[in-house]
Write a structure and sequence with these properties.
This protein is mainly alpha-helical. 88% of the residues lie in helices and 0% in strands. The protein is elongated and about 45 Å long.
Length: 90
């Protein structure tokens, strides 16, 4: 494993989790349902940013399958954020 890649992945997930936390705080503070969806979306994107390496190196999946799962997780996160922007707000 390359230490530079591990450090970059840790920074990426750390930033993603910080954004997730801030969005969740915004949801709690202002009772804003779209912010909850932003938090959930960024959580998926953050996990998706590192899951490929874990699935490939630790679990032993093929790089193709690990990449497919990563792409699906990130896409779900983006869809959730998109819903926060265009979904029905009551």
């Amino acid at each position: 494993m390359h230490i530079e890649l591990v450090i970059a992945k840790l920074v990426t997930i750390g930033l993603g989790l910080l954004i997730t936390y801030q969005a969740y705080k915004g949801y709690r503070m202002y009772d804003s349902e779209p912010m909850l969806y932003v938090a959930i979306g960024f959580l998926f994107i953050s996990v998706g940013s590192v899951i490929e390496g874990v699935l490939y190196d630790v679990v032993g999946l093929s790089i193709f399958l690990a990449g497919t799962i990563q792409t699906a997780v990130v896409a779900v996160g983006m869809l959730v954020i998109l819903y926060s922007l265009y979904g029905r707000i009551q």
